[in-house]
Write a structure and sequence with these properties.
Length: about 80
């Protein structure tokens, strides 16, 4: 499973005024962002203390739900 940061980077090219795109670009510029992290609580805690670039934590929650639905799918066994 790829890290949340790695997943988020696919939104960097979104248009301006797109909340996920703005979040991705700001996270990219945040050199302290926990780039290898996959744990919600760790990332959420980091953003609560350092995510001054987020207008609301709901942007992170929306991105996290997308991440979970697309990346945390268990592997199918034959």
């Amino acid at each position: 499973m790829k890290s949340f940061y790695h997943y988020l980077m696919k939104y960097r090219a979104n248009k301006k005024n797109d909340a996920l795109g703005e979040f991705a670009r700001a996270a990219y510029d945040d050199h302290s962002f926990p780039k290898a992290e996959t744990d919600y609580n760790e990332i959420s805690s980091y953003l609560e203390m350092n995510g001054h670039y987020l207008p609301s934590m709901s942007v992170f929650d929306e991105a996290w739900e997308l991440y979970q639905s697309e990346e945390a799918v268990p592997y199918l066994q034959n």
